[in-house]
Amino acid sequence: MSILTSPRGKVEVVHCRRTESQDVYCIKNLIRQFTQKLFGQLNIIYLLEKANLAITLCNDKEEIMAQATFLDYPNWNVAKQDDWVSVFRELDSEIPCTPLNTLFMHLFVAVNEYSVGCCKEIIRTVFKAVPELHFIFLIVPSYISLGSTLITVFDLVGDMTSLTYDEDFAVHVCHRHNHYPQLHIRKARVEDHDDLMPIFMHHNTFLKATYGDYFLAELIEAQDEENHAVVCEVEGVAVGFMSVCSRVNMQLLHECFDLGPFHGLCTPHPDDVLEPPQELSVPGSQDAERRSSSQDSQKIVEEPQEPVSPEARESENNQGKTAEEAATEELSSIVQSGNTSEMEDLENLHQVSTEDDTNHCVSAMSSASISLPKEIKYFRPIYMGASSAFCIQLFCIDEKYEARSLDFMNFVFGLFPDKNFCLISLPHLTPEFVLIQNFVKIVPFNNCTLEQDLYVFHRAGLLKTINIRLANLSDTPGVENLVSTLMVNKRILEDLKHYNEARRDPDGTPLQAFVADVAEQIVGIAVIRNEMDVEYIRSHYNIEDFIYFNHHQREEHGHLYHFALNPIFRHYARFFLKEILRLGYKSCLYYPIYPESRESKFQSSYAHSLTSALHYLVPVRPRRQIVYPLEKLGINAPSKAVSKAPLSYALNHTNRKLTLEPKITVNARIVVVGASSVGLSFLETLVFCSHLKFSNLTLISTHGLPGKKLLGTEQRKFLACDHCFNDKDHALMSLCSWVNVVVGRMTAIDRAAKRVVVSQEEIVLYDHLILCTGQQYQVPCPTGADISQLLTNREIPNSSKQRYTGKVPCNHFTLNDEEDCLKALTWIRNNSIIIEGNVIVYGDTIDTYTTVEVLLNLGMKGSSIYLVQPPPTSTITCINNYSVESAVEDALRAAGVTIYQEALLAQWNDGQNPDPIHSASFTTPTKPFKLPCSLFFSFFEKSVDYETFKAINDACLVYDGRLVIDVNFQTNDVAIRAAGSLTKFSNRYYSNEWSHSSFSSKEIGFQLAAAMLNLFDPTLEPVTEPPADLDRLIPMYKGAKIQGGVLPGSYHYLHITKPAIQTSLKVQMAQPDFGSEIVTGNAKDGTYFRIHINKYKMVETITCLSKEPFPSSNYIRLFGQHEQVLNNLCARYEDKLITDLYSYFTEPWCMALFHDRFIDLRKELRQILTSKEEEEHPSMEQLARQIDDEINLNENPRKYLRRVFQETIYKTLVEKSILDYLHYNHYHLPMYAWPDII
């Protein structure tokens, strides 16, 4: 916040923020004729879309006071976008402008009364936001003066001609030192104590309480050769302090952190042991093993951070040189060593999959999960050289000058001329401040129990002479040296060769290669090509969350192919990307990550090459696609570029607007237990927060991340689907690029130490623990009844709650996920079950039906399948629709499947050793029976896994049948949250019939993430406490509950309903407020389609049963729609115009209903009707509310409202909104006409 005073004495409290698209109208209103003379006729939206930085100044009422726009190339076309540096150097050689330290002002507007103050405030904000920036140029026609505002901050440099205009232009410059200067750094003195203590006390009182009032003075006095204290001062006043020490516990760091990429922070020594002994080597995996010390048998830390690499080779003759001179010489030896790329470090840390030539990409894990066999011994290098690092012990700076924190580094490196690395360690929950944004976070070993993160900065990172340029033939040796140790080096060099020879790929696509050089050394390489699938990206990804697509030319879209950067310059990665856009005349870059293309136990992701820039890109959400009836649409179908088979890759993106917009890093250790739909939805929500970077997300799961496509989609049919996530969704999210995966089971929780024990041996530390394990099918416990006694169910004690503790038979399967399905399918095929086996399917859930259908589909005889249903625990069946149940039962009988009802499992193998199961005995209400058994599937009852229960119970978390939570997902431990079917609401809510099981798992995960984001996202408004009476109400979520699958008889089944307490369908239909139902077709014929319309005329339930596959994703979009939106569905049905709903919903008119942005159109139309568009008339919403209370009508209220709607502006606005929607989304909805094409 700042205070501006006008010449007339008026005062405004103002603040700066990034310009948003809704500011355009106000910006246009601030443009004067003089503004147009200075900057020319500008398209404001286009200018903002291409700007690197746009700042808006607002007052405390959020009224726009001023706005300025900055780009990285000159306006008025006085020089080419990619070649302006030489032109400006010729103009004034004393101004050392470079692309790194220069921006150009392309627009400035302000309220006249406050224009001078606004201009200075914006300029100061820009210099503060971009620490590397030193010069802002302003170019205007030479015949125009700058005016009274801009003249206060800009100085004339000279004149130059334009490339397109027949007139001269005046060049003005604004210098950093006049607005937000670099800080003066010097050694600390005792008299600085009084200036510094208020700054320390503002942040933390712990040091004073521990060491006394004069700890800082004592620290300053204790300086020696190993300990130094420095301060930064402004106008003679100390405003910041740093204490550094050359004593570093290298042994502890070597034990806890993977310092291999840094040569252990030591100087090279002849006795260093850098390679594993031959007997430890695994053939073909030496590179992976060389870094395997960061891995463990169960857990791989897939830190998406970039580990710094090269070993230091600082010779003694660097003594006495400036930090920059020493850094330049150091850089030369680093580059020549060949160990220069962060990509090597990441690739050696992670397993790399095979090449996929069809996509012209090299597969490599960005950050994924793997689990190596326990017998592999992990090698850790031994470093014998002297320490080459010093550490920051204490650091503090006034918030006003925090942006200049890096000014300390030049001075402190000069204090230790023989050291090449600066270290700093911070608690995990410390918010990332400006200084460490230039450091690189070190990957810890899995056995690291330190409560701190370690960061490192290399001396060569001080160099500001980095230059990004197009590659040429002479760069090839330098690039070869840079990428020589990379697994993808051949592909990079091939593409560089293609660029140098033809500037094109072999397929003819334009190609560009860029190199980064520092001190005549190649330190980075990037290869891009023109993005040829622009239409596909626009139609399949929400890229328009970040850009206005129509303002970008086709050739401005680039595809990032390779990116390798020496990690000591990692803090220049964003600048590298910015220069690629400028020099390549691009405005957008895309970077896809494809799913692994081979079978593997653990999912990984691969892209063209590993990129250290991944975290400077934003992940783009995929768009839900319409399933088009292409034959029916004919020539009105979308183009092939839109409707072609999806490529299924996760898309990452950056553009000019994002190049100077930093992310907020969240280092909190967030551990999610369970890869359930709730857990995945939670992680998805966090990952796709584009302005946040969660660097410590961990998933603990028995089988890792789902979505591995283990055997295509065949095993999917074993279990019913909730339509939350499928294999395609997992590929489009690529969670493995952002989430650490620990494979194993949670066996204990240590709340005091905040750690989870996995598989009884591995330890995972957490700051926030999220329990989303859900419920699973368990091995049933036989009652032990002897059927020879002819016992009935009533004579047997209830054992349904007892846990089976014996050995699980090898041919007994409980299917809970795709891994279990794969094991069962493999066992069936390996043991000839299909031909000669007898299979018992025990349970009464929908999964029993889908499993029987899979067995029949595999070729088993129905007579060999026994469907045994236990006594029902409720009068409500799993399908809850008599028509569907009858069709399925008839199909089972027709297939020869034997059905037993109300049967309790009594014994396996007549009470003898149950492994393997040869027979199973059951009791019923009448007489018992015995069945032969080669394979036993149990879907008896879902409950919380015993190991999960024991871990929760031993941790003293409140458990009452399920884990008890409040409405904010909190358990009785503030650091532990839980969600999903594992949980129940506390009894104080008096809502035991409601739980998370009643709602959509995907929505529960999203709401859980929203509750967590309030802790991390500073852009969110603070959460207000609910009124006292409302904190006892449970939240009611509105997302649909969905289940589907393939039932016996090859019936494709889908059921969509609102969250509700389960009630029999007959009871529902008997209610007076039930509404109506629309049914077409017949269940037994496989043409059944039922829609329930509630009393408010909204679609509340959809049930489909069809012999033919149908577009489930389309039908899910019908839920919650008003029947009139469905083309007056009820009226047409009553008039007998609808005989087949399947055909009805393939008609062209309804395609918009299935469009992912149709909900946005509805919101926009509602906003029009609720807003007061005409002063003399109330809004349509207000008018509707007034009819009963204030307006006496002589006509039907509906007719009255329709007449008012048509006679006022609302009809025109609604029509315009709908036509704009259809026009803008024409690539998805070409079947609709609008006035321009009629």
From TrEMBL:
Residue ranges constituting the Cilia- and flagella-associated protein 61 N-terminal domain according to the UniProt record: 16-267
Assigned GO CC terms: axoneme
This protein's UniProt keywords: Cell projection, Cilium, Flagellum
Ranges of compositional bias, category Polar residues: 331-341
Top-rank taxon, per record: Eukaryota
Coiled coil: none
GO biological process terms on file: sperm flagellum assembly
Every CFAP61 dimerisation domain range: 1035-1153
Region annotation (Disordered) ranges: 273-343
Protein name as annotated: Cilia and flagella associated protein 61
Biological source species: Rhinolophus ferrumequinum
